[in-house]
């Protein structure tokens, strides 16, 4: 499969949130989004904005850094937000039930390198890096499957 890729600059946290809010309603069960970037790159901010855009009822959206997984009921079904930073490897991911969730829920995964060979080939990768100004982020979206061609069409400039 050939990688497809788009790179864009998000000029502010509000710009990051707006993109997440536009993407959220387009997702469905089985969609996996892998969020990469260093600490403070904007992964959790993006995830919170995306989750907020699809929640059935407004609720607190804590970081899953210590709980490892937060599960939400959304308009599109169950959404799992996981942070794998503290895990040692793929066996821990299986124990969390994450591989099953990849098939039945929308999944947002921070620190997806811990998945190793469990990484779904159908996933959308979002890579966050420091941008040209303090609050800006360069975002690189990478995918293999045609599903994301349709979802991302017109979403990212």
TrEMBL record:
Its subcellular locations are:
Cytoplasm
Note whether Nuclease occurs among the keywords.
no
**Principal place where this protein is found?**
cytoplasm
Q: What InterPro entries does the annotation carry?
A: P-loop_NTPase (IPR027417), T6A_TsaE (IPR003442)
Q: Which residues lie in coiled coils?
A: none
What Pfam family does this protein match (any one)? TsaE
Supply the alphabetized keyword list. Answer: ATP-binding, Cytoplasm, Magnesium, Metal-binding, Nucleotide-binding, tRNA processing
Which SUPFAM superfamilies does this entry report, sorted A to Z?
P-loop containing nucleoside triphosphate hydrolases
Tell me what this protein is called.
tRNA threonylcarbamoyladenosine biosynthesis protein TsaE
| Organism (species) | Tropicibacter oceani
Name the encoding gene, please. Answer: tsaE
């Amino acid at each position: 499969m050939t990688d497809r890729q788009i790179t864009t600059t998000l000029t502010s946290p509000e710009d990051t949130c707006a993109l997440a809010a536009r993407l959220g309603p387009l997702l469905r069960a089985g969609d996996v989004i892998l969020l990469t970037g260093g600490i403070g790159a904007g992964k959790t901010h993006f995830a919170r904005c995306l989750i907020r855009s699809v929640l059935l009822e407004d609720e607190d959206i804590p970081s899953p850094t210590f709980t490892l997984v937060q599960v939400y009921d959304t308009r599109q079904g169950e959404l799992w937000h996981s942070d794998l930073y503290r895990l040692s490897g793929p066996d821990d991911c299986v124990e969390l039930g994450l591989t099953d969730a990849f098939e039945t829920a929308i999944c947002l995964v921070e620190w997806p390198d811990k998945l190793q060979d469990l990484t779904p080939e159908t996933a959308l990768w979002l890579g966050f890096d420091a941008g040209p100004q303090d609050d800006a982020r360069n975002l690189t979206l990478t995918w293999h499957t045609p599903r994301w061609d349709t979802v991302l069409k017109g979403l990212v400039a």
